[in-house]
């Protein structure tokens, strides 16, 4: 055996070891990138889910607020004692339901704080504050805050309002 065959055999062995090490390193990087993409995908899905639940509960709360405003107006206009008592009971029931809506919105906002960026959280807090400061006739403020939340949520998911409007037209 000559030294050239030993040397070429040694180079071949080093090449095999180096190739295996590089393959291991690259596969580890690829796995990490796949995990990062999967984490981002799951994070986005969770964001979308929380946004959708918050929007649904917010819309429900605003509709309920309108019912409550109507009940308060009817109660004030009522002259009959029995009818007034029934309207008072209905208004009290609606106030209790509104309190549950506000509590459910609080729970969803806390979930938002885990997944949403600060501008979405601020918009959610502003929307929720409209319920704390609510009195009949202040509904437009709730709608404006609701629209602001929708815009912030859409932006955090990578959609601009213009892109969304264009997608509705197509």
Main attributes?
170 residues; mainly alpha; single chain; 5 helices
Short summary:
This protein has helices at residues 3-77, 81-115, 118-132, 139-156, 161-169. By secondary structure, the protein is mainly alpha-helical.
Strands, count: 0
Derived from helix and strand composition plus strand pairing, the structural class reads: mainly alpha
Low-pLDDT runs: none
**Helix-strand topology string:** HHHHH
Question: Using only CA atoms, what is the Rg?
Answer: 30 Å
Distance between the termini: 76 Å
Q: Helical region count?
A: 5
Q: Major sheet, described briefly? A: none
What does the average pLDDT come to? 78
The amount of helix comes to over 70%
Strand percentage: under 5%
- Which word captures the global form? rod-shaped
Give an overview in words:
With 170 residues, the protein is mainly alpha-helical. It has helices at 3-77, 81-115, 118-132, 139-156, 161-169.
Describe the secondary-structure layout.
Elements: H1 3-77, H2 81-115, H3 118-132, H4 139-156, H5 161-169
Helix pairs in contact: 1-2, 1-4, 2-3, 3-4
